[in-house]
Design goal:
The protein is α+β, with helices and mostly antiparallel strands. 46% of the residues lie in helices and 24% in strands. The protein has helices spanning 9-19, 32-51, 113-186, 191-258, 308-311, 329-332, 353-356, 401-405, and strands spanning 53-66, 71-74, 79-84, 91-92, 97-102, 263-266, 271-276, 283-284, 289-295, 300-306, 319-324, 335-342, 364-370, 373-375, 381-383, 389-400. The strands form 4 sheets. It has a 6-stranded antiparallel barrel. A 4-stranded antiparallel beta sheet has the order 2-9-7-4, with no helix packed on it. It starts with 8 loop residues before the first helix and ends in a 7-residue tail after the last helix.
Length: 412
């Protein structure tokens, strides 16, 4: 009993293993969920960048001017002054027609555009009739050739079908002649029978040669028909091309003529006509001064000059935000101005050339109306004066975010 251990061996072994600590197997962290999440985030970002768009805005410099001076009106095209609807000293409202400029009749020998258009329409219809007649003649001649070709092809087929029969007849007669010749040599038949069979051979040989000549003649006829058809195609194509070019030229002249309709010259604002520099029937050129108007109210205007790209992106009555140099927009905000005038042609000289950075050749003048008083974001009013420098933010278009980041990507 004394030699028995105090604890069972199993208990001692369990206690010994427990001192070494328990071992737990844990699965290592996998990167697959993290990678999938990253890919989904990238795809969502690309989709968002492809759908979200931001405006492409350009900034144009300008200044305020008082409207108490005279407003210049320019001819918007070359032509002849038609009706003058106002007189010197007469009050006119904004957007009222003060005169019209019609087409210049000198290039047409004094004819009116309606007469020239009538002549062009008549010539156009005549050329169309000629083209239709040529097409009909061409179709008739080609149809006749097609019938002739089909007939010749049928005749060639029939001749070629006879070839084996004729050849067989010639071969059989030749063999029979040789048999007659052997019989004659043996003295079995007379010489006359041999000569008769020889004439039969010659007859079949002559028939074969005539057949071959007919076949060759039919082939030559088919080749001639093909050549004649190609010649007709070339001949009519050349004539039709000349008439089609004539139609294109007439269409171009008619399009140019449509641009010569009378244009109305309207007053840019309310005011009194101070100077009329043209009269009815007078020849004018594009950009020529034709009238001056003294504005009826002393309100302020903003004048700025833009290039051709900006000129195509703006329109009358468009509202644009204006930032004054004297009132930083981060603190005071912006003032909205409405476009009331856009010059149809570039202005060769202007008072803000050093601010706009626009080439004189392609500078278009724009005018915006603004109130005399500017109320900032805090509700405080500030009086505006003539000659204040400012910036106008003009949206050109909208571009998606992905095109801002990658400009080389196609916009389609």
């Amino acid at each position: 009993m004394r030699d028995s251990p105090l604890y069972r061996p199993e208990s001692e072994q369990y206690q010994r293993e427990r001192w070494l600590g328990e071992i737990s197997l844990v699965r290592p962290i996998t990167l697959i969920p993290l990678g999938v999440s990253l890919v989904v985030a990238i795809v969502c970002t690309i989709i968002w960048a492809s759908l979200v768009s931001f405006p492409n805005i350009t900034v144009v410099r300008g200044r305020t001017i008082a409207e108490s001076g005279l407003v210049q009106i320019l001819a918007s095209r070359d032509g002849v002054v038609g009706a003058v609807l106002v007189e010197t000293g007469q009050f006119t409202e904004a957007n009222r027609t003060i005169m019209t400029i019609g087409e210049d009749l000198r290039p047409f020998g004094g004819q009116s555009t309606s007469d020239v258009r009538t002549d062009l329409d008549r010539t156009y219809k005549q050329v169309e009739g000629t083209i239709a007649s040529l097409e009909e003649t061409k179709a008739t001649r080609l149809s006749s050739l097609e019938l002739e070709l089909q007939s010749t092809v049928k005749r060639l087929d029939a001749l070629q079908q006879q070839r084996p029969i004729v050849a067989m007849n010639e071969s059989n007669s030749t063999e029979l002649f040789e048999a007659y010749q052997d019989a004659f040599d043996r003295g079995a038949i007379a010489r006359l029978d041999v000569l008769r069979q020889e004439s039969v051979v010659l007859e079949f040989r002559r028939a074969r040669l005539n057949l071959e000549a007919s076949i060759e003649s039919a082939r030559i006829a088919i080749a001639l028909i093909d050549d004649k058809r190609a010649q007709i195609e070339m001949e009519f194509s050349r004539e039709l091309s000349a008439f089609v070019r004539q139609l294109d030229q007439i269409s171009s002249e008619m399009r140019n003529l449509s641009l010569l309709s009378d244009q109305e010259i309207v007053a840019p604002r309310d005011g009194v006509v101070k100077i009329l520099q043209v009269e009815a029937g007078q020849q004018v050129v594009r950009g020529q001064q034709i009238a001056w108007i003294e504005p009826d109210d002393p309100a302020l205007q903003v004048v700025a000059y833009v290039d051709d790209q900006v000129h195509k992106s703006i329109a009358l009555d468009q509202v644009l935000p204006i930032e004054f140099d004297a009132f930083p927009y981060q603190r005071y905000g912006t003032l909205l101005g409405r476009i009331v005038g856009i010059s149809p042609i570039p202005i060769s000289s202007h008072p803000v050339d050093n601010l706009s950075g626009v080439d004189e050749v392609s500078a278009y003048q724009i005018n915006l109306t603004i109130p005399r008083v500017f109320e900032d974001v805090r509700g405080i009013e500030h009086k505006l004066n003539s000659g204040m420098l400012l910036s106008i933010r003009i949206p050109l278009d909208e571009r998606r975010l992905i095109h801002w980041v990658f400009p080389s990507l196609p916009s389609g």
